[in-house]
Every structure is written in structure tokens, then in C-alpha cells.
Write a structure and sequence with these properties.
This protein is mainly α and 294 residues long. Helices cover 69% and strands 3% of the residues. A two-stranded antiparallel sheet has the order 1-2.
């Protein structure tokens, strides 16, 4: 059997496919971060907490109200997005024009409050969310048996990511959002409600995190700390792609998932740090990121 680094070649495609699943979550989460930073200049460290809230919204919706998975894909991001708008109006709007460090500290404190509250109410043990019946099977790819749900995660994430990129970069709404970041007073003079637009932008960014949480719920145990470690990796993805670059976040998230999957095959011990090694190299060679602007 053909081998690479002593590893059978037949194993590699399957591991890369699983890496693409992780990359899909990285892309979706980093997309929300990039939208918020690119259009608002806020380093949203509470992104992992909103991801966790999305998963809990789906779980509690099922347990308390009988809301199924397909409805949760719409309702959970909507509820968390509205919560994000409240956060922006009550807290973040006071920090605009200040050093981004203030926004980072504010959102970091918010993340601690959310995670601590969830831990206090639901404990530290995770709860499982059932895979919907329509996605409960598996497909034979020839080189591996891929659970149908994981295939759905890849497709859904890619569609949402590139759909968001298209809206921001290729539509009139996206042009208005970008104009609000460049010259808000001028845009407001033309009758555009800029504060509402900014609040909706933050709400949309955290709704993407909540959507990722709903997609992750059937894959991982839903617990109060599920977003803590993931958000660190996602920040690294955003830095590699370029802070504020929508396309950079999507491409980097998917690519780094594949790199992480390949690393697990050839050198598993390095799989948890390979993203940070790449981030360090990018910061040395191109500080603005692969797709970012100087």
C-alpha cells in the first residue's frame, strides 16, 4: 500500500473530509467576526458566547417548546441576533471612536458573564442534541463512510458563507453598509438611519455565530464552555485571512480545517497548534493577513 510519511494514502482523503467539517465551522464563525470588525471596527470577543447561546437556544427550544431542528436553524439565530442588537444599543455604541481595545475588553467581559451564567444554570456536563431524522444516515464516498449530517454541515456553511459575501460585496445593501463605515455623517445626511444599520450589522454577525452553534449542536455536546476554546482558533483564522476581510475569513477557515485534518494524519501532536504556527508566520511575512489591506 502506498504511504506518505509512513501513513497509508487511503487514510488521508477521509481525514481531509473530516477536517473540512471543522473548517466549515471555522469559516462560519470567522465570517461573523470579520463582518463585525470590518464594518464596525469592534473586536467581538463574545463571539464564542453567542455561538454557545445558539446551541443552547436550539436545545432548550426542543426540550421546552418542541421546536424541531429545521425551525431552530431560523429561530435560534433570530433570537440571538436580536439579543446582539440589544447589546450593541446598550453597551457597544458608547465605545465607537475609541481604541478597539475597549471593545475587546467589553465583549470579553460579556463572554465571561454569559458563560458563567450558563454554567451556573445548566452545570458543566454537556447535553446531546439529536440528529434530525432526515440527516441520520451516512453516504459511502468510496474512501470513507461520511455521516450525512456532517456533509450537510459542509454544504450549509459554504452556502451561508458565500451568500453573506455576495450580499456585502455585490449588492446595494452591502454598499450601504460599507459606506456607513467610511463616512457615516454623509450617509445619514441622505436619510439613512446609520445607528439602526450598525445595530443590525452586529446582530447579523452574532446571528451567524448562533447559526454555527445550531449546526454544531448535533455534533458536539452542548455545554457552557463549548465556545471558549473554539473562539481562540477562530480569531487566529481571522488574523490569517486579514482582519475585516470577508473572503479571507471564508477561504482561510476552510483551508485551515483541511490543514488541521492533514496534520492529524502525519503528526497528530501538532494538530492543536498548527493554526497558530501558520498565524505566526503570516504575521511575520504579511502582517495585514493573506487577504487584508495594509
Amino acid at each position: 500500500m502506498t504511504e506518505i510519511f509512513g501513513i497509508p494514502v487511503a487514510v488521508i482523503p477521509g481525514q481531509l473530509t473530516l477536517g473540512l467539517v471543522n473548517g466549515s465551522f471555522y469559516a462560519l464563525l470567522s465570517l461573523g467576526l470579520a463582518v463585525i470588525f470590518g464594518l464596525m471596527g469592534v473586536v467581538n470577543f463574545a463571539h464564542g458566547a453567542f455561538y454557545t447561546l445558539g446551541a443552547f437556544a436550539a436545545l432548550l427550544g426542543l426540550q421546552w417548546f418542541g421546536v424541531n431542528y429545521w425551525a431552530a436553524l431560523v429561530l435560534a439565530p433570530l433570537v440571538v441576533g436580536l439579543l446582539g442588537i440589544v447589546v450593541e444599543r446598550l453597551l457597544l455604541r458608547h465605545l465607537y471612536g475609541l481604541d478597539p481595545l475597549y471593545g475587546l475588553l467589553m465583549t470579553f467581559g460579556l463572554a465571561l458573564i454569559v458563560e458563567g451564567s450558563l454554567h451556573q444554570v445548566f452545570g458543566s456536563s454537556g447535553q446531546s442534541y439529536p440528529v434530525p431524522e432526515a440527516l441520520a444516515g451516512a453516504i459511502n464516498l468510496g474512501f470513507m463512510i461520511l455521516p450525512l449530517y456532517r456533509a450537510w454541515v459542509i454544504v450549509a456553511s459554504v452556502v451561508v458563507c458565500f451568500g453573506t459575501w455576495f450580499v456585502i460585496e455585490r449588492t446595494r445593501l452591502g454598499a450601504t453598509l460599507r459606506a456607513a463605515t467610511e463616512n457615516a455623517p454623509l450617509l445619514q445626511a441622505f436619510g439613512v438611519n446609520v445607528p439602526l444599520l450598525v445595530a443590525a450589522t452586529y446582530g447579523g454577525g452574532v446571528a451567524l455565530a448562533a447559526l454555527a452553534g445550531v449546526l454544531a449542536a448535533p455534533v458536539v455536546l452542548v455545554n457552557s464552555h463549548m465556545g471558549t476554546s473554539l473562539v481562540i482558533v477562530v480569531f487566529a483564522v481571522v488574523v490569517i485571512g486579514g482582519m475585516g476581510s470577508i473572503l479571507g475569513s471564508i477561504v482561510s477557515g476552510l483551508a485551515l480545517g483541511l490543514v488541521e485534518g492533514f496534520t492529524k494524519v502525519i503528526y497528530p501532536e501538532a494538530s492543536n497548534i498548527v493554526v497558530f504556527i501558520i498565524m505566526a508566520l503570516v504575521l511575520i511575512l504579511r502582517p495585514a493577513g493573506l487577504f487584508g489591506k495594509e
